């Protein structure tokens, strides 16, 4: 198994690929779509975890 194949299991690969495409002006690519989806998922996860921690802390 090559390192490229293994890197597809790392979620940070997709936003990085999206930023590379956006930097060169390629906005209608699969990399950009997947990168945005992963970034939105990360944001949703962060808000969910943050909300639960805030509620648990009793603030």
Describe what you observe in this structure.
By secondary structure, this protein is an all-alpha fold. The protein has one domain (11-57). The chain contains three helices and no strands. Helix 2 packs across helix 3. It starts with a helix and ends with a helix. The model has no long low-confidence stretch (mean pLDDT 93).
Can you lay out the helices and strands and say which pair or pack?
Blueprint lengths: L2 H5 L5 H12 L5 H28 L2
Mean model confidence by pLDDT: 93
Strand tally: 0
Characterize the main sheet: none
* N-to-C order of helices and strands: HHH
Could you provide a short overview of the structure?
This protein is 76% helix and 0% strand. It contains three helices and no strands.
Task: List the keywords.
59 residues, mainly alpha
